[in-house]
């Protein structure tokens, strides 16, 4: 089959690879309904994360189960499933405690930018819908696999509550999903930090009440203007750089909360600064598996439309252009047709 | 009057100083019932924090109001009061929101190791008891000013809940108060990390159910043994070094919480480490003012006895020996008779 391989920074291609098959009895094989490119795929693409060997890219997926290993009992061939980008066992204390993304047997999904994929630990990772979903909801269900879950976790970790003021740092796909999540969780005011017109528009559509284009000290001053001079209750950090992290810390009020979901690259936090800031901090890979049933309800009842975050659609064969468009910020997020 | 001045690391003395008087209309003057030395006083005493000019030491205090400025309305001469080591206005959004220790007009108390002290922002800082407390409760009421409040905040920030497992890193006075607080907040298991016999004994008396003497990787392994292999729900960091902070991070389970109250000195946290750890982190100066009414209830009804943490009592004149005994870990905490 044809699938996506990253050979070195900037060199990503659709090439012929072997079709995946069941290896462990806990595996499932799925035929993907669609795939996509994640903002985090850009870290190695941009050379900000090492590429030691050719990497099978793609960790966001949904589709129809083709085959399951002998030990799989919760999904069966013919079912439509979505799984988390974190593969989890479903049985360890962290999975049982609601933290599947810190599963003791955690693996990270790869090889999802392809028509067929192997899903290890299928029972702990996949959730099936009650029936085959309508075609037009595939993008939103695909988003549930990571980008929606990650934005939602940012809002959850930032303890967004009804009536609160939330700030979203980062206007990428995850940040936009963070806006959507903050709205769903009842935030009264949602301040999106963005300087890109199309992203501002989508943020407003998803529920942002304010747009701030300034960054750094100026951005922080604008937020304080809107928040009694002290900062926001909840801040969603959706980038992962030192600058964005400090922007998030500065945007929250004392006693407020920061959910950080951009994988930090080169970020270091001074202990005494954090102490005197007196703000809750929680990050990590999103516990998507925990959220999936709720996402199915919201998406299948058409209460949310996370699929709108895909503003470029390409055939898998053109995956390189998909990366390039996102790298150059011409696209928010690329959906790959299979 | 005679009061405590730190001239340079190691050189602390009881010397003649001018008696404080009302300066601002929001001040109160109190006659202290007792004073004490804080673990944080050891940072400059040990030269780990600069001493740029002679410093009037002491930030823990309780006593009787002698005089109030014209703008003070909530306390009056003759009342017994306790105040926080953080002086707070009581009117700013942070004070009103329950975060007096991040008061917009925050000042830190000084000059409390003395018979008489000036308390700025008296209305926002002091709380009076309904009547004059019995003499034997003075040490416990003095503890409420900082050490109890700080240990309590560590448990609160670490989200100790009924039935949870809590770990306390640090067996100083704050750590021991953390044990007491965790017990009060309903922790089922309280694991105190301590290698000092008298401190272990007090920890057990305050409610610790387990003592771990190992540190570093061995200590973390012992904790995992007791916690399903994943770590504790709540960890109270009561030291403030890189080692203790990492011990705390390693002792918590994913999704668990760390309350850090030891003022960090030379502590730096890697963003990616914190991300993959996936643990809640909240530190800062304790919002003691918020807790004081609750502390009064618990202490005056003799439900808790935080005053036991004072295992050395000296006249103010011998304050230098009090610092020395704590520095050499011969004493947990020194009470100063005035």
TrEMBL record, chains A, B:
Residue span, Enoyl reductase (ER) domain: 10-336
Cofactor(s) the protein requires to work: Zn(2+)
Alphabetized Pfam families for the sequence: ADH_N, ADH_zinc_N
Keywords for this protein: Metal-binding, Oxidoreductase, Zinc
InterPro entries found in the cross-reference section: ADH-like_C (IPR013149), ADH-like_N (IPR013154), ADH_Zn_CS (IPR002328), ER (IPR020843), GroES-like_sf (IPR011032), NAD(P)-bd_dom_sf (IPR036291)
Protein family (similarity comment): Belongs to the zinc-containing alcohol dehydrogenase family.
Protein name according to UniProt: Threonine dehydrogenase-like Zn-dependent dehydrogenase
